[in-house]
Specification:
By secondary structure, this protein is α/β, with parallel strands linked by helices. The chain has a single domain, classed as NAD(P)-binding Rossmann-like Domain (Rossmann fold). It has eight helices and seven strands. It has a seven-stranded parallel beta sheet with strand order 3-2-1-4-5-6-7, with helices on both faces. Strand 1, helix 1 and strand 2 form a beta-alpha-beta unit. Helix 1 packs across helix 8, helix 3 packs parallel to helix 4 and helix 4 packs parallel to helix 5. The longest helix has 29 residues. It is globular and about 45 Å long.
Length: about 250
């Protein structure tokens, strides 16, 4: 089965949560994975888990909003494994606040990591993909792209990623490169836990509340998103491009 076997993948923001789950899933299915995060040391823990399970991976440190750092990371990955065919734009941060309290730094930080980061990574990775006439770009959007109180910055960035995805699909499709996005709903991660604490609740209460509101009656796990990313990243998904897949337990049905 072709899948992602022997493909080289770069997963950003992969030291924990959704990114770590995607990196582990791709490696388990035979990809050689660059696990990238702001701090290389944090990424190394995920690499150790992958290699101990028999997979191939290297840890990379970079600020995705800085071109020279992204270029260096991609060069290192391609030099180690011989190319780059799969990119997962997952790096992200939160700077939640109501509009009247939101500062310029709150806005700029979120835009730089989510949007500029995805642009830079895609811009740099696409050369390897176009040269090989094969590539898969998967970007993490969110159900917040529909709008969410206290997240004017985050919602805008995640909506922007959907526009970027569709444009990449149009421009890169003739070269054998697909681009798709995943829009997770409630997913239990360290970031979600921090959000719960910030608003004065617990992750357990947040999980319970989410489960009651969803048709599937449970909250999401990083592995749910990893499954979707693995589909988009696979060779079999070559006729699927420009799509936004909401992995949200049916929240959009209400």
């Amino acid at each position: 089965m072709p899948g992602v076997q022997d493909r080289v993948a770069l997963v950003t923001g992969a030291a924990q949560g959704i990114g770590a789950a995607i990196a582990q899933r791709l490696a388990a299915d035979g990809a050689k994975v660059g696990v990238l995060d702001l701090q290389q040391e944090a990424a190394q823990a995920v690499v150790d888990e992958i290699t101990s399970a028999g997979g191939s991976a290297i840890a990379l440190g970079a600020d995705v909003s800085q071109r020279e750092q992204v270029q260096a990371a991609v060069d290192t990955l391609a030099g180690e494994f011989g190319g780059l065919q799969i990119l997962v734009n997952n790096a992200g941060v939160l700077r939640d606040n109501l509009l009247f309290k939101m500062g310029d730094d709150d806005w700029d930080t979120v835009m730089n990591v989510h949007l500029k980061g995805a642009f830079l990574c895609s811009n740099i990775a696409q050369k390897h993909m176009v040269d090989a006439k094969y590539g898969r770009i998967v970007s993490m959007s969110s159900t917040s792209a529909r709008g969410n109180r206290g997240q004017a910055n985050y919602s805008t960035a995640k909506a922007g990623l959907q526009g970027l995805t569709k444009t990449l699909a149009i421009e890169l499709g003739p070269f054998g490169v697909t681009a798709n996005a995943i829009a997770p709903g409630f997913i239990e991660t360290a970031m979600t836990k921090a959000t719960a604490e910030r608003v004065g609740t617990t992750i357990e209460q947040m999980r319970e509340g989410a489960a009651k509101a969803l048709p599937v009656r449970r909250g999401g796990l990083p592995e749910d998103i990893a499954n979707a990313a693995r589909f988009f990243a696979g060779e079999e998904a070559g006729y699927v491009t420009g799509q936004v897949l909401y992995v949200d337990g049916g929240s959009g049905l209400h």
